[in-house]
Amino acid sequence: MLFKYCFRILFSCFFISQYALAGNILCTKNVSPIVVFDMRYLLEKDLTDINNVEMVWDQLHLVSTLQGIVNRNKPSLFIKYVKEEEICVDEYWWNKYRKEGEWLSQRDTIQLTSLMDVLAYFKKDIKGLVVYDSDVPSTSNVAS
């Protein structure tokens, strides 16, 4: 009997805590907007030119590292880049989660159009420097 009583109390506490947590996650008041940055312009670069290859590599690493930092506690930066034939995979997921009743449906968004704008917007979140050796590609995985 005591076991049933304790179990019910623990279950109730767990349920109430999960409900409260869900309420905090779904509440969108006073939540900063999600920045959307479309990096598909990189797909148009001529990758036979080594300078373009390095520029694409560096920009993708920079933004994906920044995305990992700023999305640590809540969604803050969404990147559009992945494209399969004529289908933008990232656009699919963005539209799916922006539908009414979905996870990001009530979040405001800001569209930024340049890498410098993205860096300026998140400058308060940047607290260090990541360095890797471009001659040793695996070091970029450790750095980012």
What does this structure look like?
With about 140 residues, the protein is mainly alpha-helical. It has five helices and five strands, in the order αβαβββαβαα. It has helices at about 1-25, 50-70, 90-100, 115-120, 140-144, and strands at about 35-40, 75-80, 85, 85-90, 110. A three-stranded parallel beta sheet has the order 2-1-5, with helices on both faces. Strand 3 and strand 4 (about 85-90) form a beta hairpin. The chain is globular and about 45 Å long. Mean pLDDT is about 80; it is low at about 1-30.
SSE layout and pairing:
Layout: H1 2-26, E1 34-38, H2 50-70, E2 77-80, E3 83-84, E4 87-88, H3 89-98, E5 109-112, H4 115-121, H5 138-143
Parallel strand pairs: 1-2, 1-5
Antiparallel strand pairs: 3-4
